[in-house]
Amino acid sequence: MFRRLTSSALALAAMTAPSFADVTPEQVWQSWVDYYQSVGYSVTEGSRDKAGSTLTLRDVLIAGGAEGNTMTFKVPSVALSDQGDGKVKTVFAEEMSLDVAGRDPEGGDYAVPVKIMLPGNGIVTSGAPEDMTHEFDYPSIELVMTTMTDNGEETPLPMSFGLTKSTGMLHIVTGAPNKYDYDMNSEALTFQGDVTDDEGGAVKFAGSLNGLNMKGGMDAPGEFKDLDEQMDAALKAGLSMNGALDADSVNATFDYEGVDEEGQPSQGAGKYLGQGIKANFSLSKDGMGYKLSSDAVDFELTSPQIPFPVSYGIENAGVEMQLPVSQSDEAQPFKFTYLLNGVTMSDDLWSMFDPTAKLPRDPASLELDLSGLMKVTRDVFAMPETLADDADASADDAQERAEPDAMTDEMAAEETTGFEPVEMNINKLALNLLGANLLATGELKATEEGIGAPIGHIHAEYEGLNALLDTLGSIGLIPQEQMMGARMMLAMFAKPVEGSPDKMATDLELKEGGSIFANGQQIK
């Protein structure tokens, strides 16, 4: 999937910023052909002609894909004009098409035709053959879908995506390594659709990302004729890439209608309003990283089946993940963080389980910060045939060392995913909810049985927990006959902190053999 997404995204990006142009029209066209071939696509032209300083290509086909899925761009014409000042201007046909086809996870064949419209497009290229800058201006870019064919049956698929007032640049330096940098600003990315399912349900949606900026870069050493198929080798040779997306605001609406699990009519509408969002991506042989964060978000859902709107808000949120991707016998660092801050609900939603407003309604929050070390047992971007060869070799070796039934489920999972956690640090686990809060830290290390049976310790502190239990009991969310059991369970794991009557703590020790001690008392 990573390879497919990478090649598809690069292919479409090159369509909107045709790359690797040079100081003459012929060199512009050849560099474009070279680029697509480098990422596994073929380029064929129906015809070409040169009139004065303009080279025109007609009926151009750009085709490729991976893992049983193909993409074919059909470009009626590309005009490349020498401006006479060392610059070349490229103009695409204002309307072209994209055919996407392949096989879905259930084994069925599908095909989706897409119309691409680029009115008034233009790119001006300057510089030297080994160091070129392409400045592009697109008043609008629109992708329109109307139908989808699934196993020979055509069904409506009215969806569209568009970019407005897009400008930017693509800078390319060829050599060792090749370097690419891009920066694109758009007034908005819009989307809309009207999708139906097999049961007769329908969803209409529309929205936009406003004030959009996309930037990134790639260093590509070596010559790889098919980057899609050779991603693992390219990473080992030093390929690295990064990208970032910022938007000032996000808004979306949707309406749905259909039937519920009991066959009864169901319908509703929702809206999403969000402030700024940021997303970042990086990839090299040293690891893969994702980071996504958002400012304030408000969501509302209304339905005739619900007596009041369901709404909630979030002050800010974020998630970050960094993972190694290259096989090594040495453990490598990883990181995962998650933040959900300032979560609020409407009073109508609160009243469903707390009509007398006895529970504190302060904004809730959750923060998780994990880091550690893991072994990567196989290269994440290795092609399936390479993995199969490695798996056969590993199986032969394992057969000599152990009986087949000696592998645990966890070990089998590690072989499948390629990741084997060795150490995990709980740098912070913080939860604030209903007037109570939890703060925990810890360190865990894998044993011979894996990280599922670790050794280490966890320290946790709580405040407001007794008061919360009292309130939950008073409003009936914890029945009185269960209250004693809840308090006994709390006393088993937590002890009062001296000098702080409403504060409790837990010290968990996990030891060899699976034994667990809570505050010095063995509980397992």
From TrEMBL:
Assigned keywords, A-Z: Signal
UniProt KW Signal keyword: yes
Keyword Signal: yes
A Pfam short name: DUF2125
Signal sequence bounds: 1-21
InterPro entries from the UniProt entry: DUF2125
Region (Disordered): 389-409
Name assigned to this protein: DUF2125 domain-containing protein
Organism: Paracoccus aurantius
